[in-house]
C-alpha cells in the first residue's frame, strides 16, 4: 500500500476516528487505527467495541490531494501514528507499507518507520441494513443530545440509566434521560411515515462523541437502527454504537401534571444568580441552594450557605409568580445544567411541594421540552 495526501485533510479525519479508540480496551488491535486504501479512496476506522467510527477520504475530491500508488490495508498504533502525523513538517505526507507490515511515513526531510499489524485481524463492523431510514437535521440532533445527556447517570450500578431512551412513534421522536435525581425530556415532530416505530436506548457517552464528530457544514444525518446497533451517517463519517439492553423505566409518570406554586424567570438571569449562590454552597458538604417564593409579597429570594465560609442572599427578578408560599432546596449543579439547556429563553417553573420534584419548561413550545429536578431534604 502506498499513497500521498494533504496532511491537514488527513489529520481532520484521523481526529474523528480517534474519538472511538481507547487505550483501556481488552482487545489489543483496537488500540490501532485501521487504514484501508482502495481505488475509490481511503477509509480510516477506529473502535473500542462500544462505538466505532469510519471516515472516508475520496480519491475524486481534488482538495484531498490523494495520490494512490498501490492499494492495501494496515493497522497502526493510534497513539504513535497520530502524534507523528501531527508533527510532520510539510503540507503533504506519504505513507508506504513494506514487508512484514513495516510502515514508512515521510514528509519533507522527516522520515519515520513504525510497525503495523495485519488489518485482516481487525474486527468487522456490523452491517446495518434497514428500509426505515431516519433523516435528522444535524443542528436539531446536536441540540437534542445536549439537552438530554445532562441527566444521564454516571453510575454503572444501573447501566440502563447511562443511556438516552429514544422512542419514535407516530412521527414524533422523544428523547428522555434520568439519573433518578433529575430528568430531561425533549420531543421533536418529524415528517415521517407514521408507521415507523423505534424504541432504543443509546449510551450517553456514545451520543456525546457523536455530537463532537458532527461538523456544522453538514446539514443532515441519516440514522439506521438494527437489533443491537445504531448507525449514524453524516457526510463522509459513519458512527456506530451498541445499544443498551433492557427496559427503560416508565418516566412519563414522574412528571407532575399539577402544581401549587408557579413562577417565570429569564433563564440566563436565574442561571447567573444560582452560579453566585453556589460559590459558597460548594464549600459546604451538602452543596444545597434554597429558593424562597412568596407570591403574597411578590418576591423570590435565593440563599446559599456554608457554615465555614459564610452565606449569600439575593432577591430575584421574576414574572407571573402565583400560588402558595414555598421554600425549596436543591442541588445547584443540577439546576445550572438544566438552565444552560434552555439558552436565552424565558422559562416557567412549577412546584408541587418542598419535597416533590419540580419542572422547568420554556414559556413557548412548552409541550416539547421539560427538565425535572428532585429537591433536597434539608431537615
Automatic annotation (TrEMBL):
InterPro entries: DNA_clamp_sf, DNA_polIII_beta, DNA_polIII_beta_C, DNA_polIII_beta_cen, DNA_polIII_beta_N. Keywords: Cytoplasm, DNA replication, DNA-binding, DNA-directed DNA polymerase, Nucleotidyltransferase, Transferase. It is found in: Cytoplasm. Its main location: cytoplasm. The keyword Zinc does not apply. It holds the Pfam family DNA_pol3_beta. Forms a ring-shaped head-to-tail homodimer around DNA. Belongs to the beta sliding clamp family. This is Beta sliding clamp.
